Structure prediction request, 377 residues.
Amino acid sequence: MKKIIILGAGMVGKAMAIDLSKKYDVTSTDIDATSLDFLSKKYKIKTHILDVTDVNALSLAIKGFDMVISAVPGFLGLQTIINVIKNKKNLVDISFLPEDIMHLDALAKENNVTVVMDCGVAPGIPNYIAGYHNTTMQIENLEYMVGGLPKIRTFPFEYKAPFSPCDVIEEYTRPARYKENNCIVVKPAMSDTELLEFDKAGTLEAFNSDGLRSLIYTLHNIPNMKEKTLRFPGHIKLIQAFKAAGFFDNNPIIINNSSVIPFDFTSKILFNAWKLGAEEPEFTIMKVSVTGIEKGKKKEIVYDLYDEYDAIEKISSMARTTGFTATATTDMILNNIFNEKGIFPPELVGKQKGCLEYILNYLKERNVIYSKKERLF
Prediction:
């Protein structure tokens, strides 16, 4: 039986461990023993307390495993990826680190390993979709919007974070890049807000965020690309007020002779305000639209996702949709469906024959269903 080690046992890390333990020998690691206790007591999952910043401890922990999955916070992502590569281990990463890691391609090839980055719901599935359709049609426009939201709207934020609040704040502060007429446009995050109607979610507000990531550079032939995040109406106005007032600043201020960084203070407060309850109902919604020329005809292909909290397995929708994309990719690599060496964002995997179909079928088996519609112009 193949052996997999997962670095991080947070909400998504747990979901991945549970899913993969049904087929593989799985070990979960985390710096927090509480998260690990939940897995070891309820499932056939080995656990190990690990600080991934301890290079020697990490090297020892991953020795003997066929596959590593990194589900650490974004600020730990880059160094963790480098250390795993140097230990000659294949890796699937969902840390969504802010840095570009394509420069590590030579290092990955030198160590004969496969690394798939940004392997979640988004970035992740839209990348797979774009990579595949870029081989079958001349794409003129790629646009996707995505959000993870609680079913019960609670004052004041009407939002719960499935990830670390500091990673969500990064999404609200990092300038948003998109492509328009073959030019890269940079706008402030949370700009160009618009209200949109969705069948199962009702009215949601979309705004610019920096979710295209590698797509801007890897699929440079596509002239128009945009990504937006979805929230309940009113949420983003509140976040903009926080930002304007300085709550996200990283420069320290002095309070009662103590130095305080506003960003750290805000993250601490929001951790409790945004914490998703263990069995709190929530949903993930996404729409991916690809428009272009296929076989001489203009076509639009739309993928829609609406997924809810799994009350039977007690796994959040965001953990399912994010984590199972990564476990699908892991399964695909271990089954030698994809075996190229180097650093790969999902779009460079999706262009390989059969890979997108494999991922979507894997997700469908777990009731994460992407409906697909096509129309000719």
